[in-house]
C-alpha cells in the first residue's frame, strides 16, 4: 500500500515547483467545480484536464494507477445498477430488466468526474512533501489543530504499519490462516486490541518526549513559502479552465443537451 | 464504506461540511495540549487497521471499526474519524476531498451512536457484557453509517433508489463482521487494559478502618 503519498515529491515538474499554497487553492477550486458538473462533454473535458495535470506533474504512472484502484472498484456497481434502475422509459430490456441509456449516461458522468478529481488530488498531494502540503493548508486558513493532528497521525501511521506487519507475520508463523469463520473474527479483534494497547502506552512516551523537547502546543516549522509571478500565472490558467468548464456546463451550446451524450 | 466524488449535489456536500464542522467543534471542546498528540496516535492506529481485510468467499472486506472508535474514544471518536477520512481521501483516494464532510458525518456519526450504545452497559450486569455491548456498538455503528449513506444517495434523485438499496443490503454482512470484531476487541481490552475503554467507572476507594 502506497502510504507515503509524497514519495515522489522530489520529482521536478511545473506542478512540483508551484507554490503549494497557490497550488492547493487553485486546484481545490477546480476540484469543486468538477464535482458539480452535469454535462457529459464537460466531464470528459475535466477528465482530459485531470490527465494532463498528472502528466505535467511527472509522477510515475504506476504510482498514480495504484491510487486509482479504489475509485475504479467503487464505481463499477454504478455502471451495473444505474442503467437498470433509472426511472422512466426503458430503451430495451436485458434479461427482463429495463435498460435506460440515461442511467448509463449518469454512471459515465459520475465515473469521469470522480476519476478526474482523484487524478488532480493525487497530483496535488503527490508533488509536495506531506508536511509542506499540510502547512500550505494551514496558511489557507485550515484550523491549526486539525493540521497538527494530521501531521502527527500521518507520521505515526508508518510506525503502526510496521508493527502491524510484524504482528501479522508472528501470527502466520504460529499457523494462523484467515478464514471466513468466527475464530478469525475473534483473532482479528484481539489483534486490533493489542495494537491499541501498544498505542496507548506509546502515547504517554510520545507526549513526554515532546515535552522534553520543548513542545508547548505549537508546531514550529522551518518551511518558508515563496511565491512568484509564475505561480499566479499557473493559478490563472487553472481558473480560466474553471470558468470555461462552468460556462460550458451551464450555458453555451451544451446546455440544451444536458440530458444527452453530446 | 465511503461515498466517492461526483455523485452528490452541492447542497448535500455543503450540508456535510456544515454538519462535520459543527460535530467537530462540539466533540473537540476542552481538548488540551496533551490530548492533541495522544488522539493523533490513536487515530493512526484506526487508520492502519482499516487496511485489515476479512475474507468473505472469493473476495474480502476491509474493517472499518468506527464502532470501536466510539467504544474506545467516546466523544473524541468524531475528530479521530474526521482525520481518518481526510487522510484516506488524500493518500488513498478513498472517498474524496469534496465528500470529506459527508463521509465524516456518516462514519463519525456512527461512532458516536456506538458510544451511546456502549454506555448502556452500565445498566446491565451479566457475563461477557463487554462482548455483547461491543458487538452491538460495532453493528449499530455500521448500520447507522449505512443509513446515512443511503439517505445521501436518495437525495440525489430517483435514479439512485436502487443503488441506495444495494448499498444498505451490502452493509448487512459488514455489520456482522464489525460486530464480532468490535465485541472481541472490547472483551480483550476489558481483560487486558480496561482503562482504554471509554466510560469506565473508577473503582470506589476503599475506606480503611483506623
List the helices and strands and how they pair.
The complex is a heterodimer of chains A (262) and B (210).
Chain A: H1 14-17, H2 20-35, H3 40-56, H4 61-67, H5 69-85, E1 92-94, E2 97-99, H6 101-126, H7 130-139, H8 144-173, H9 182-212, H10 229-250
Antiparallel strand pairs in A: 1-2
Helix pairs in contact in A: 2-6, 2-7, 2-10, 3-6, 3-10, 5-6, 7-8
Chain B: H1 10-27, H2 35-49, E1 53-56, E2 59-62, H3 66-73, H4 77-92, H5 100-119, H6 129-155, H7 161-192
Antiparallel strand pairs in B: 1-2
Helix pairs in contact in B: 1-4, 1-5, 2-4, 3-4, 3-5, 3-6, 3-7, 4-5, 5-6, 6-7
Structure in words:
The complex is a heterodimer of chains A (262) and B (210). Chain A has helices at residues 14-17, 20-35, 40-56, 61-67, 69-85, 101-126, 130-139, 144-173, 182-212, 229-250; strands at 92-94, 97-99. In chain A, strands 1-2 form a two-stranded antiparallel sheet. Chain A folds into 2 domains: 14-137 and 223-249, no CATH class; 143-212, no CATH class. The longest helix of chain A is centred in the C-terminal third of the chain and has 31 residues, at 182-212. The radius of gyration of chain A is 23 Å and the shape is flat. In chain A, a hairpin with a 2-residue loop joins strand 1 and strand 2 (97-99). In chain A, helix 7 packs antiparallel against helix 8. Chain A has 262 residues and is an all-alpha fold. Chain B is mainly alpha-helical and 210 residues long. Chain B has one domain (10-196): Arp2/3 complex 21 kDa subunit ARPC3 (Orthogonal Bundle). Helices cover 65% and strands 4% of the residues of chain B. Chain B has 7 helices and 2 strands. Chain B has a two-stranded antiparallel sheet with strand order 1-2. In chain B, helix 1 packs across helix 5 (100-119) and helix 2 packs across helix 4. Chain B is globular and about 70 Å long. The termini of chain B are far apart. Classes of the chains: A mainly alpha (262), B mainly alpha (210).
Amino acid at each position: 500500500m502506497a502510504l507515503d503519498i509524497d514519495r515522489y515529491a522530489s520529482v521536478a515538474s511545473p506542478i512540483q515547483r508551484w507554490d503549494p499554497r497557490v497550488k492547493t487553492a487553485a486546484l481545490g477550486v477546480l476540484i469543486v467545480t468538477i464535482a458539480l458538473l452535469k454535462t457529459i462533454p464537460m466531464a470528459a473535458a475535466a477528465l482530459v484536464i485531470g490527465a494532463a495535470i498528472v502528466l505535467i506533474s511527472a509522477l510515475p504512472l504506476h504510482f498514480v494507477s495504484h491510487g486509482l484502484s479504489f475509485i475504479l472498484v467503487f464505481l463499477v456497481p454504478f455502471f451495473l445498477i444505474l442503467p437498470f434502475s433509472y426511472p422512466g422509459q426503458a430503451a430495451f430490456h436485458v434479461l427482463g430488466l429495463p435498460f435506460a441509456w440515461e442511467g448509463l449516461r449518469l454512471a459515465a458522468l459520475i465515473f469521469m468526474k470522480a476519476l478526474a478529481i482523484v487524478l488532480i488530488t493525487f497530483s496535488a498531494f503527490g508533488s509536495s512533501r506531506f508536511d509542506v502540503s499540510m502547512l500550505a493548508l494551514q496558511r489557507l486558513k485550515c484550523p491549526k489543530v486539525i493540521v497538527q493532528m494530521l501531521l502527527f497521525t500521518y507520521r505515526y501511521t508508518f510506525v503502526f504499519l510496521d508493527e502491524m506487519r510484524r504482528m501479522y507475520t508472528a501470527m502466520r508463523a504460529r499457523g494462523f490462516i484467515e478464514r471466513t469463520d468466527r475464530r478469525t473474527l475473534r483473532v482479528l479483534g484481539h489483534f486490533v486490541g493489542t495494537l491499541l494497547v501498544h498505542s496507548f502506552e506509546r502515547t504517554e512516551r510520545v507526549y513526554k518526549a515532546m515535552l522534553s523537547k520543548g513542545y508547548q502546543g505549537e508546531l514550529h516549522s522551518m518551511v518558508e513559502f515563496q511565491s512568484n509571478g509564475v505561480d499566479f500565472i499557473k493559478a490563472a490558467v487553472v481558473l480560466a479552465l474553471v470558468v470555461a468548464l462552468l460556462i460550458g456546463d451551464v450555458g453555451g451550446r451544451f446546455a440544451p443537451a444536458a440530458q444527452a451524450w453530446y | 464504506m465511503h461515498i466517492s466524488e461526483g455523485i452528490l449535489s452541492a447542497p448535500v456536500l455543503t450540508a456535510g461540511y456544515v454538519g462535520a464542522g459543527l460535530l467537530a467543534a462540539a466533540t473537540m471542546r476542552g481538548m488540551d495540549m496533551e490530548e492533541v498528540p495522544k488522539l493523533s496516535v490513536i487515530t493512526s492506529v484506526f487508520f492502519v487497521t482499516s487496511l485489515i481485510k476479512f475474507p468473505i468467499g472469493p473476495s474480502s472486506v476491509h474493517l472499518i471499526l468506527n464502532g470501536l472508535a466510539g467504544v474506545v474514544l467516546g466523544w473524541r471518536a468524531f475528530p479521530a474519524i474526521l482525520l481518518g477520512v481526510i487522510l484516506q481521501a488524500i493518500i488513498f483516494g478513498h472517498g474524496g476531498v469534496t465528500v470529506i464532510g459527508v463521509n465524516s458525518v456518516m462514519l463519525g456519526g456512527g461512532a458516536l451512536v456506538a458510544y451511546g450504545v456502549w454506555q448502556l452497559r452500565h445498566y446491565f450486569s451479566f457475563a461477557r457484557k463487554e462482548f455483547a455491548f461491543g458487538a452491538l456498538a460495532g453493528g449499530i455503528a455500521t448500520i447507522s453509517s449505512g443509513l446515512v449513506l443511503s439517505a445521501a444517495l436518495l437525495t440525489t434523485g430517483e435514479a439512485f433508489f436502487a443503488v441506495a438499496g444495494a448499498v444498505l443490503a451490502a452493509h448487512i454482512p459488514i455489520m456482522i463482521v464489525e460486530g464480532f470484531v468490535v465485541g472481541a476487541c472490547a472483551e480483550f481490552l476489558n481483560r487486558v487494559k480496561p482503562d482504554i475503554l471509554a466510560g469506565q467507572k473508577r473503582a470506589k476507594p476503599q475506606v480503611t478502618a483506623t
